[in-house]
Specification:
This protein has five helices and no strands. The protein is mostly helical.
Length: 128
């Protein structure tokens, strides 16, 4: 009988409102802590992916720069770069600039500076 009464006291203590409120606070604290850790974990995973992508981009850039360095180390590559940056020529070499004629620009320029009779004359010439 004494055992039964001791168990009853223990149950009263365990299922008392104070203990249940305390356990509810502990449970709430654990849930919020777990949520914070989960959010930090997700952020770390996304940062890790961003860093991996950045490393891949940097490796690609490194390979491109190494190709450019090897091109510039050759005589023809260095000459091409100097010509492009400083607009130089070899002795005895001439530069030829080709400008394409643009019909639309000619018509616009003529239309702006011409009078009424010039437009009629241009229209007659276009018919032929």
């Amino acid at each position: 009988m004494q055992e039964f009464q001791e168990k009853r006291k223990l149950r009263k203590i365990i299922f008392s409102r104070k203990v249940l409120v305390l356990l509810a606070f502990v449970l709430t604290f654990l849930i919020f802590s777990t949520a914070k850790v989960y959010i930090k974990s997700r952020n770390a995973v996304s940062k890790n992916e961003e860093i991996k992508k950045e490393v891949a981009d940097l490796e690609q850039r490194k390979s491109d720069l190494q190709k450019e360095i090897s091109r510039l180390q050759s005589e023809s590559g260095a000459e091409e770069e100097v010509r492009k940056k400083f607009n130089v020529q070899k002795p005895g070499e001439n530069a030829l600039v080709i400008v394409e004629k643009n019909n639309e620009n000619d018509k616009i320029n003529q239309g702006e500076s011409s009078g009424f009779f010039t437009k009629i004359w241009q229209w007659i010439k276009d018919l032929w």
